Amino acid sequence: MVEILSGSQGNVVGLKVSGKLTDKEYKEILIPKLEAVVKTEGKIRFLCYMDKDFKGWEMSAAWDDLTFWLKHKNDFSKLAVVGGTKWIEVGTKLSAHIMGGQVKVFPAEELQKAWEWIKA
User: Fold this and answer.
1) Which residues contact 82 (CB under 8 A, 6 or more apart)?
2) What CA–CA distance (Å, rounded) separates 8 from 111?
3) β-strand 76-83 against 44-57: which pairing, if any?
4) Taking a C-beta distance cutoff of 8 angstroms, is the pair 50, 84 a contact?
5) Most buried among 3, 77, 90, 118, using CB within 10 Å?
6) CATH class held by domain 2-119
7) Which backbone phi and psi does 96 adopt, to 5 degrees?
8) How confident is residue 34, by pLDDT bands cut at 50, 70 and 90?
9) Cβ neighbours of residue 110 closer than 8 Å, sequence gap 6 or more
10) pTM metric for this prediction
11) Confidence band (pLDDT; 50, 70, 90) for 27?
């Protein structure tokens, strides 16, 4: 399940994800929202909060994720990943080497700190 967080406005987009992300959620919610922000605002400040119930991606959604990030890797000024497993943390830190913006990982209990960083 994908939920757009209330702190989202302008070029700041915060999402909460739980359960297993689906291809449908990527194509109907996530990708259209982020591409609309790129079109109207330019670079995105993106916060992705993975709650304790987050179970990962469907295989087709993982492909959507990869192709989206490769296409838009330079459209992010900041990316904050909050929560998630150790492999998500490692993958996020590795992606910092190919993205054009700043990337930071926060533990789930530092959601407010992540919001402050993404907005600064």
Assistant:
1) 47, 48, 49, 50, 105, 106, 107, 108, 110, 111, 114
2) 14
3) parallel
4) yes
5) 118
6) alpha beta
7) -60, -25
8) very high
9) 82
10) 0.91
11) very high
Q: Which residue has the tokens 């590795």?
A: 94
Q: How far is CA 4 from the centre of its chain?
A: 11
**In the chain, domain spans:** 2-119
- Residue 52: pLDDT band (50, 70, 90) is very high
Amino acid, single-letter form, for residue 4: I
What is d(CA 10, CA 8) in angstroms, rounded to the nearest whole number?
Answer: 7
The tens digit of pLDDT for each residue in 8-19 reads 999 999 999 999
Average pLDDT over residues 104-112: 96
Backbone angle region of 81, left / alpha / beta, with phi > 0 → left and psi within -120 to 50 → alpha: beta
Structure tokens that stand for 69 in this block = 């990030």
Are the beta carbons of 86 and 78 closer than 8 angstroms?
no
